[in-house]
Specification:
Largest sheet: 5 strands, parallel
Low-confidence stretches: 26-55, 87-91
Distance between the termini: 46 Å
CATH architecture of the largest domain: 3-Layer(aba) Sandwich
Number of helices: 9
Order of helices and strands: HHEHEEHEHEHEHEEHEH
CATH class of the largest domain: Alpha Beta
Strand order of the largest sheet: 4-3-5-6-9
């Protein structure tokens, strides 16, 4: 279908931009690799014995070893019994989600991209960086386990494209049970009622999930530069809102936005989550840097 082809082309273009963005930030790759090798995150062997799936070495069977650990194929080649040791791994995973609701399609004349396209670009960029460093990243609500590496990144991009073409690509993150100590990164404008957002965050925080929210707004949504008669239309609502003198509500609008953000900050703080902000007239590199600093601080990595 033409619509499906357009969405596939959209993701392909954003993926190319994300890869270029990652390539332009080589220090990030070094730092992401430090995170992977110094902190217990993702599917990384720690060069010591423990629970995990990655093979490390064979050693001779000895007192106290379980017979279940014996590698019979390796033992058949020798005169001794050998056990198969795996590396210790930390099973933390990063899950990502993008708000693709109607309101995210907004782009004013002051913005470099729509909120949805910027969210998708940042999501792909973060996933590409972490997957390139060996971390496991999954798309919340998509089928299949989180993956790492280039092939994992391709599947991640395909999952985003599938969600764009899905009829239920709404503005609310799905409620899914996640492993304790997983990390969840959410991109959106988060302009929904605070009670709704608080319920979602509590659901995941109660599971022991560490969360990160990046609120993405258009500069016109922050500055409210409108004057004269203006008709506002919400793509998800049936009724328009008209103002004869839009400038007369500017102060009240900004106060309400500040109050909403303060409430959002309180909700995140109470859950131990991180909240960052981004405007679509700013460069995506700036947003990535701010997001990385949040991740790096939690992972005890210097920036």
């Amino acid at each position: 279908m033409p619509a499906a082809a357009a969405q596939l082309a959209r993701i392909a273009s954003l993926r190319a931009q994300a890869e270029a963005l990652c390539a332009a930030l080589p220090p990030w790759m070094v730092k992401a690799d430090r995170v992977a090798n110094t902190v217990a995150h993702g599917a990384h062997g720690r060069r010591r014995v423990g629970l995990g799936e990655a093979f490390w070495q064979f050693r001779r069977y000895g007192p106290g070893d379980s017979t279940r650990a014996i590698d019979w194929r390796q033992s058949a080649r020798n005169s001794h019994l050998f056990v198969r040791e795996t590396e210790w791994e930390a099973a933390e995973t990063l899950w990502c989600w993008c708000d693709l609701g109607p309101g995210m399609g907004y782009r004013s004349q002051f913005a470099g991209a729509s909120k949805a396209d910027r969210a998708l670009l940042l999501c792909l960029s973060v996933a590409g960086l972490l997957m390139g460093a060996g971390e496991r990243v999954g798309l919340l609500g998509a089928e299949g386990p989180p993956r790492a590496g280039q092939s994992g990144f391709s599947r991640f991009a395909e999952a985003l494209a599938d969600r764009l073409m899905s009829a239920d690509a709404g503005a609310t993150p799905p409620s899914r049970p996640l492993a304790r100590h997983s990390k969840l990164l959410l991109f959106g404008d988060f302009l929904a009622p605070l009670e709704q957002i608080a319920t979602l965050i509590r659901y995941y925080a109660d599971q022991g999930v560490q969360g990160y929210l990046m609120q993405i707004l258009d500069p016109a949504e922050e500055d409210f530069p409108f004057t004269g008669r203006v008709v506002f239309h919400d793509g998800s609502a049936a009724d328009d809102i008209a103002f004869g003198r839009a400038q007369s509500v500017r102060l009240g609008y900004r106060e309400k936005l500040d109050s909403h953000r303060a409430g959002l900050q309180t909700i995140c703080q109470d859950a131990g989550w991180r909240l960052t902000f981004h405007r679509t007239d700013q460069t995506p590199q700036l947003a990535l840097l701010g997001l990385y600093r949040c991740l790096a601080e939690d992972m005890k990595v210097s920036v």
